[in-house]
Write a structure and sequence with these properties.
The structure is a homodimer. By secondary structure, chain A is of the alpha+beta class. Chain A has two domains: 142 residues, 60s Ribosomal Protein L30, Chain: A; 173 residues, PurM-like C-terminal domain (Phosphoribosyl-aminoimidazole Synthetase, Chain A, domain 2, Alpha-Beta Complex). In chain A, the strands form three sheets. The first copy, chain A, has a seven-stranded mixed sheet with strand order 9-11-8-12-10-13-14, sandwiched between helices. In chain A, strands 3, 4, 5, 6 and 7 form a five-stranded mixed sheet that branches. In chain A, strands 1-2 form a two-stranded antiparallel ribbon. In chain A, helix 4 crosses helix 5. The longest helix of chain A is centred in the middle third of the chain and has 18 residues. Chain A is globular and about 65 Å long. The two termini of chain A are 24 Å apart. Chains A and B meet through helix 1, strand 2, strand 3, strand 4 and strand 7 of A and helix 1, strand 2, strand 3, strand 4 and strand 7 of B. Strand 3 of chain A pairs antiparallel with strand 2 of chain B.
Chain lengths: 348, 348
């Protein structure tokens, strides 16, 4: 918790831009055949042969998307990669390369950036992707990370948000709400720390949900599993903003409605118990919490036997005609219209 | 000069993220055959057939790379695209797509972002590229723009920084130092304005250099010209940090030395006269000014007849054995070692 102020500090101005990029990326290995030329020229050169390429990009801003008082820089680097890979997998593609740009203030030392890049390098190694470019510049305030990710897929394999059909099943991977409740725990401990800096937090009872917040994993395994099970979802999206918002995206772009069953939403026991501790409704958390980076997809009912009893998947509803609207069917068997919670960053 | 405070203002919080992206990109047309799916899903889908792909990315940060008190937002959008396309052309590639992400504080209205995106749209239209993705988020302070650009080239056509050979000619496009002197004029007028806001600056005598600073053009035409003239440079880089720094990059990566002739460096008459007005040495400006976005390249002497007398090109020196070092040969015929000016942003 909270930055160690006594760590070794090498000022960034001692290196200059070129020294910095060379230094931060010198351990990065190139593994993808499609990477012909990586960092060190005006641009990287890639060869995707005859495959289609997916491209996605995300910005993470200090004070908006992360708080360094409880987010270790190494985890932040890892998470910045995961957020982008998750979008690649949500297209049913294999991730191959990323570029990483950072804007950083003088407040950060070289050692701090090495921590950040060690998280990026770990993510790249575990997910078998190449870091092929980036930019490093100064900022007047905090830290900002911009990642662009690339992936490849065969020409007929892309899964859009727009392909869901009435009667398709709505399926989610993993469980929901953990990342949001992890954030609540971390925010509470930060307040405790502010009051008494000698009070070291005991995060032991919250290990799972804190890890869901600080070190999420993108579902690379699911894209492989689809291939293995011979399933092509009709529509897919990753859960970054919350289940509710993502269902509405699929419904809007596919021109369908949806019935989502409250009692089917997968929740980890730790999420349930921490929701009770915080006196928050766990369904609300799963619907609106976000940052779970699970995949939400629809499949034809004909494919149901292929996913039945697979612990990675939970069927949570089905798609309907558009006129029927988008609803949550509660445990009490009443229907409530699902609403987007919108994007609150600009209201902050 | 200086923002108009009375312009129409729609608060960003009125739209939310999805409304904002839709709104800002709704006029953007898709023209490239290689763009299969653009903005609106988890990722864009591109099909580059059997060509190689180049990828480059740059961050522009308010207060570091631009000053909105004299940089109109429309020009800023245009320039953010040019900076990246310039890197694509420096690989000898054709630019095809970009993604644009912005982090923006509440200080900016929707109308301000529309201005920014109209500059991006103009650049995309004139340079025939598609805007295929991006992210829009809030920041706690100013404006930050992250652009990633894509281009394609045939498999044997990539030109790296590393291919220069001793006796190759060193050639530059256009003229140098204009963007830096334009910045000096704008900075001076800003100080005048601060003292007396009623004093409207007369920029008429500085039109060329101010435009070099505010609205640079990437040299798309040169890549076409190489194709037409059947020239493949042995090495190439774009001039973003200054001639001196770029020559040193080529020499380092190609393991060669260089003799650069001071009297051959192309300068616009306006640059020369404004350098006199500011009492700055014009060679120093050309060597270290940066932001000219011209192309610097080396060619085999056998190719000299193909570029001779072409007004786009100036031969400014030749490459030597690495042991001979990198030198400026002055008008007085003395040799001075060229030094990198380094990257000063972190010292600010």
């Amino acid at each position: 918790m909270i930055e160690d102020k006594n760590q070794e500090r090498t000022s960034l101005s001692e290196l200059g831009e070129f020294g910095l990029i060379d230094h931060l990326t010198k351990h990065f290995e190139i593994k993808q055949e499609s990477t012909i030329k990586s960092i060190g020229d005006d641009a990287a050169v890639l060869n995707f042969e005859n495959k289609n390429v997916v491209v996605t990009t995300d910005l993470l801003v200090e004070g908006v998307h992360f708080d360094l008082s409880y987010m270790p820089l190494k985890h932040l680097g890892y998470k910045a990669v995961m957020v982008n890979l998750s979008d690649v997998y949500a297209m049913n593609a294999s991730a191959t390369q990323i570029t990483v740009s950072i804007a950083v203030s003088n407040r950060f030392s070289l050692e701090a950036l090495e921590e950040l890049y060690s998280g990026i390098e770990t993510a790249a190694r575990l997910y078998n992707i190449d870091v092929v470019g980036g930019d490093t510049t100064s900022s007047n305030t905090g830290l900002l990370i911009s990642v662009t990710a690339f992936g490849v897929l065969k020409k007929d394999k892309a899964v859009y948000r727009s392909g869901a059909k009435p009667n398709d099943l709505l399926v989610v991977t993993g469980d929901l709400g953990g990342a949001y409740m992890g954030l609540q725990v971390l925010e509470r401990e930060k307040e405790v720390y502010k009051v008494n800096p000698n009070n070291q937090p005991d995060l032991q009872p919250y290990t799972y949900i804190v890890e869901r917040q600080l070190k999420p994993e993108a579902r690379k395994d699911i894209v492989k599993l689809f291939d293995h099970l011979d399933i092509k979802p009709t529509a897919m999206i990753d859960i970054s903003d919350g289940l509710s918002s993502e269902i509405l995206h699929i419904c809007k772009q596919s021109n369908v409605g949806c019935d989502l069953y409250e009692n089917k939403i997968p929740l980890d026991p730790q999420v349930i118990s921490v929701c009770e501790e915080f006196n928050i409704d766990s369904t609300t958390v799963a619907l609106n919490g976000g940052e779970d980076y699970e995949l939400l997809f629809t499949i034809s009912q004909d494919d149901y036997p292929k996913i039945k009893a697979n612990p990675n998947f939970t069927v949570i509803g089905f798609m309907t005609e558009q006129e029927k609207g988008v609803h949550l069917v509660t445990r009490a068997d009443t229907k409530i219209a699902l609403k987007a919670q919108g994007w609150k960053n600009f209201n902050a």
